[in-house]
Amino acid sequence: MSERTGRGSNFEPGSKTRELMEVRNENVARGISSVMPVFVKETRGAQVVDIEDNVFIDFAGGIGVVNFGHNHPSVVEAIKNQADKYLHTCFMVAMYEPYVRLAARLNDFTPGSFPKKTALFNSGAEAVENSVKLARRFTKKTAIVSLECAFHGRTLMAMSLTSKVKPYKYGFGPFAPDVYKIPAPYCYRCRFGLTYPGCGLHCAHYLEQFLAVECSADNVAAVLAEPVQGEGGFIVPPPDYFKVLHDICRRNGILLILDEIQTGFYRTGGSLASYHYNVTPDMITMAKSLAGGVPISALTGRAEVMDAAGPGEIGGTYGGNPLGCAAALAVFEAADRENIAQIAKDTGTAAAARLQAMKEKFSLIGDQRGLGAMQAIELVKDRSTKEPAAEEAKAIVKRCHERGLIIITAGIYSNVIRLLMPVNIPHEQLNRGLDILEEAIAEEQGGHR
Ligand SMILES: Cc1ncc(COP(=O)(O)O)c(C=O)c1O
Predict the structure, then answer these.
(1) Counting atoms of ligand 1 from 1, which one is nearest the CA of 288?
(2) How many angstroms does the Cα of residue 223 sit away from the middle of ligand 1?
(3) Cβ neighbours, 10 Å, residue 10
(4) Is-contact 115 303, C-beta < 8 A?
(5) Average pLDDT for residues 7-22, to the nearest whole number?
C-alpha cells in the first residue's frame, strides 16, 4: 500500500472518479448520500485506498463497522471458507451450525446470568424493529419510550424512535403511533439547565413524571436507549444514569432495551457499553462491528421475552446469513486472541488526551467527551452561548478529507466531530490522523478570530 496520503488541498477527483461520479449521479437515488467524492479500490487495517491510489487514514470505519480493522485476516478467511461450503439455505428452512453457535456466543457475551436467547437479522434497524415486536408481545402493552437525540435506524418504527428531524424524519411521516421521547442525559446541553451530579439525575427520574403525566406505566412496554448516543453526538450518560432508569422500569413492569449497535464490540473499551454502566437490560440490539463488515444484526435477551413470539412470527429470508455468522464467530475469536479490550482502552485514552489538548487550544471546541475509543468534540461558535458550529464542523471535516483523513460528523445540530477509527489502529496512524484534524481546526479557528 503506497504511502501517498490524501489528494492535496484542491481535492480534484481524477478521471476515473469523475466518470464513476457521473454514473452514480445518473443512477443512484439522491437520498443516498456519500460524505466524500471517493471510490474505494481496497482497504487494509485503518487505511482506505481509492481508485486514484490515494491513501486515507480511516476515522469512520464504515460508521463504526470495522472496529477490528478493515479486512481482518481471520474474518476474511472465515468468510472465504464459509463461501466455499454454502451461501444461503435460509435458517427458517434448513438450519446451519454457525447460526446456533453465534446465538450461543451472544447469549454468553451479553450481561445477565439468567437464560437468554438470540434472534439474528440483517441490519441494525431490523433488530430494533424486532425488539419492539417482542416487547409488545411479552408485556401485552404497546407504548415505547425512547430518548431525545436518539438514533435507532431508518425503517418506520426505528425512524419513529429516532430524534433528529432533518435528515432522518422530515417529510417521511406519519410515524408509528405510541412512541414517546424523554429528555436525553445530554449534560453539555441539559434540557433542565442543571449540572451533574448536583442535578440528582433529574433526566433519569423524569421517566417517573412522564409515566404520571404522559403515558401510564400500564401502557408502556419498553424504554429503548443507546448506552452512549451515537448519531446524536456521542452523548455519554453519567455513570449512574442507567441504574436509575432501570429501577423505574423494573418497578413499573417496563422492559429496558439497550441499543448497542454503535457502542458494541469494544468500541467503548468494554465488550459492550452496558458493562460500563453495570446494567443488565432485558434485550440488547447489536449489529455494525458484530461481523467486521458483513451485514448481520442480533437481538439477544431474556429467554422468556425472546420466546414471546411463536414460530414464524419473527425472522426473515436472510436473517443470520451464513457468511455473517461465520464472520461474527471469527470476530469473537480475534477479539479474545488479540486482547482487543485493552487495545481499545489504550486507543481511547490516547485519542481523548489529544482531543482534550485541542480543546484547551481552540475555543471552537465547546466540549470533548467519549467513552473508550468512542470519542468526539462538539464545536460551538461561542463557548458561553454554546451556539452550534455546524458549518465550521463541515468545513473542518472537508479539509480533513482533502488531506487524507476520512472523518465524519454527528450530533443533533451536526456540530460534533466523532472518531470511529478501528480500535486497533496503529498509534502512528492515529496520531497522523489527529495531526490532520488539529491542523484543520486551527485553520478554521484562524478564520474565526
Ligand atoms: C445506535 C444505532 N441503532 C440503530 C442503527 C441502525 O442500524 P442500521 O443502519 O444497520 O440499520 C444505527 C446506525 O447507525 C445506530 O447507530
Answers:
(1) 10
(2) 17
(3) 6
(4) yes
(5) 81
Task: Identify the domain containing residue 288 by its residue range.
Answer: 73-337
355 and 267 fall within a common domain: no
Q: Residue 128 CA: which ligand 1 atom is closest?
A: 4
E-strand stretches of 213-338: 220-225, 255-259, 283-286, 297-302
Asked if residue 193 is part of any domain, the answer here is yes
CATH number at residue 440: 3.90.1150.10
**Model-level pTM greater than 0.85?**
yes
pLDDT at residue number 11: 62
Q: Considering the domain boundaries, does residue 293 fall inside one?
A: yes
User: Interior CA angle at 111 toward 68 and 326, to 5°?
Assistant: 40
- Nearest in space to 331 (alpha carbons), one of 87, 109, 42, 114: 109
pLDDT single digits (tens) 149-202: 999 999 999 999 999 999 999 999 999 999 999 999 999 999 999 999 999 999
**AA identity, residue 212:** A
Q: What is the pLDDT of residues 370-428, one digit of tens each?
A: 999 999 999 999 999 999 999 999 999 999 999 999 999 999 999 999 999 999 999 99
pLDDT at 218: 98
**What does DSSP assign to residue 175?**
P
Q: How far is the CA of 425 from the centre of ligand 1 (A)?
A: 23
Q: Which residues pair with 419 in a beta bridge?
A: 375
Candidate of 262, 263, 299 to mutate for ligand 1, largest count of ligand atoms within 8 Å of Cβ: 262
- The number of residues making up the chain comes to 449
CA distance 272 to 116: 16
Domain finish residue from 277, 309, 337: 337
Give the number of domains in the chain: 2
Which atom of ligand 1 approaches the CA of 297 most closely?
Answer: 10
Per-residue cell: 132: 419492539
- Nearest residue CA, atom 7 of ligand 1? 124
| Residue to substitute in 163, 288, 420 for testing ligand 1 pocket (most ligand atoms within 8 angstroms of CB) | 288
Q: What is the pLDDT of residue 5?
A: 58
Ligand 1 midpoint to CA 447 (Å): 35
Instruction: In the chain, count H helices and then E strands.
Output: 14, 15
Q: Before 197, cis peptide (omega within 30)? A: yes
Residue-wise pLDDT tens digits, 257-292: 999 999 999 999 999 999 999 999 999 999 999 999
Q: Is 99 helix (H, G, I), strand (E, B) or coil?
A: helix
pLDDT of residue 7: 56
pLDDT of residue 4 exceeding 50, the answer is no
> Which residues, 6+ apart, have CB-to-CB distance to 336 below 8 Å?
none
Q: Is 3 within a domain?
A: no
